[in-house]
Write a structure and sequence with these properties.
Layout (H helix, E strand, L loop, with lengths): L1 H6 L9 H32 L3 H47 L1 H14 L4 H25 L9 H24 L6 H24 L3 H29 L3
Helix pairs in contact: 2-3, 2-6, 2-7, 2-8, 3-4, 3-5, 3-6, 4-5, 6-7, 7-8
Length: about 240
Amino acid sequence: MTESTSAHPNEPHQKNFAERLNWLRAGVLGANDGIVSVAATVVGVAGVTNQSAPIFTAGMAAVIGGAISMALGEYVSVSSQRDSQHALIEKERQELADDPQAELIELAGIYQSKGLSQETALQVANELTEHDALAAHLSAELNIDEEEVVNPWHAAYASAAAFVIGAILPMLAIMLPPDSVRIPITFAAVLISLALTGTLGAYIGGSSKRVAALRLVIGGALALAATFFIGTLLGSSGIF
């Protein structure tokens, strides 16, 4: 078993796979949201005015508010997931304490339903129960590892930090260039960075890099175009 696991280091039977996916999900979502939402904000304001002060103020408000919002959202979401996992673990622990024989039969039935003979399934269930009954039932019934319960603080920190890191790029892209080219430079920088984060996330997660990058680039382009159009429309209307 050890040899098989080490031969496939990128497959999901790694011990820390759930935790890694938790960090990856929060980090990639945070970075992408930081890039897109802050870029959309500053591009939208730049459509109304070319003055740097209001653009910078709006951008910083989007950075601070977005980072807090992402962290809070991740914390609440992952806390709910963690509470559900803890509840399922405690329920299974209680069932094992109340009627271990019935749980043994249930475990054997699970393995028998997967193709093992009745005799083999009962032997597997007995051996797993002797080793760690709770872990055996959590894995077979619920696909949960007690040591891999998600951590909401990790998700919150990763999401907020990634949001701020992602937001730095559109802020620099809109503030540093001359007024005449700040919009196209911001568009280009944002779309390239979205393609890179999509590719990186897909690489770590083992999914299609092209699909992930294309999905983010199209979504980001639509968001930027929409906010710039609305900002330009408001600016030319004389409302502001």
